[in-house]
Amino acid sequence: MTKARFYSKALDKHFEVERIIGEFHGEEDGPVLVFFGGIHGNESSGVVALIEVMEEIKRLKPKIKGSIYAITGNMNSLQKEQRFEKEDLNRIWTKDRMRRLEKGTFAESELNADEKEQLELFKIGKEIFKKHAHQVYCIDLHTTSAPTVPFITLNDTLINRDFATKFPVPVIIGIEEFLVGPLLSWVMEIGYPSLAFEAGEHFSEESIKFHKAFVWLSLVHGGLISEKEAPEFGKHHLILAASNADHGRIFEVYHRKGVSPEENFEMKPGYANLQPVVKGEKLASNVDGDIISPENGRVFMPLYQKQGNDGFFLAREVAPFWLALSARLRKWKFETVLTWLPGVRRDQKEKHTLIVNKSVAKFLAVEIFHLLGYRTKVRLENELRFTKREYDVRGVAQRQ
Description:
The chain is an alpha+beta fold. The protein has three domains: 239 residues, Zn peptidases (Aminopeptidase); 68 residues, CATH 2.40.50; 63 residues, no CATH class. Helices cover 27% and strands 28% of the residues. It contains ten helices and 20 strands. The strands form four sheets. An eleven-stranded mixed beta sheet has the order 3-5-4-6-9-7-8-10-16-15-12, sandwiched between helices. Strand 7, helix 5 and strand 8 form a beta-alpha-beta unit. It starts with a strand and ends in a 13-residue tail after the last strand.
């Protein structure tokens, strides 16, 4: 698809967009920032923000160090104002599918509409990664079906943390333990830091404002333009900082309520992201009755749309002490000690995966593995499989 024409409900306006919204290269080599908007077709806010920022860059001509790319995600679904057509484009970047794309063992006629979008994005991503020797940062712009304060989600690596904590918004870690196949997992797997920014509710004009603010701050914090050349940098910072009371805090997701179409899941009205909930509180219902909160915490990404299989998540704040300890232990490579413990062994085929025997290693809390960057990816009857990102402390460009 060469161009997509879509409607912004927030602005009551139609836009026309190409796959590459904008591309800028400075005279001097430096970092590379790749922005994605509209990976979900019902989330047009990020695309609108990228169109407007790219136009501002073209007009203002700031001095750029490095390169900037702005890319449209699911163009087909964006036109149709739907999240996806056949499959969620942000859930199909699994290892098996990526191996298939790498080998080219498919006929394009076999692909559904969302897989065709993935193939185009994959080719563009590979070209960008091949072209640039400097560190590439990828940022995926999203909105949610419920009212929310702006926040960042990321795979919990130290390079991701270092970048994310420059922004005056809450940061959510641990969600990768519950999601299969998001775009940024592929990006992290091949060694590039990445994060997702959720700006607000799908059809809110404020979401566009927050997305624009975040893009400008990203260009400054990423080292591509100077603060003085970013229009209204201070205002953008204040807009995000004033949007919520939790900025600067880090939360960890610890519970997911998965849903299926046949269970008639319905979230109780009125919940906003990071809203406190108490143990036993009714959060939703389905054909089996009420669904209650298993613990005290913060409700995260409650589902208020028809498409999607994540009913809600629960999160809790992580104390600064544990974050600092985690960083120290990872830099010291303390993880090597884990394989000395009874009931813990390293997977022979995947060197960054640990297999833990539940009956032997009962004394090892999951939190210990989380501290060291490992996340539970597979839970079997007798064992757990914990996996961490290869590029935790440093990115791929720093190891070449």
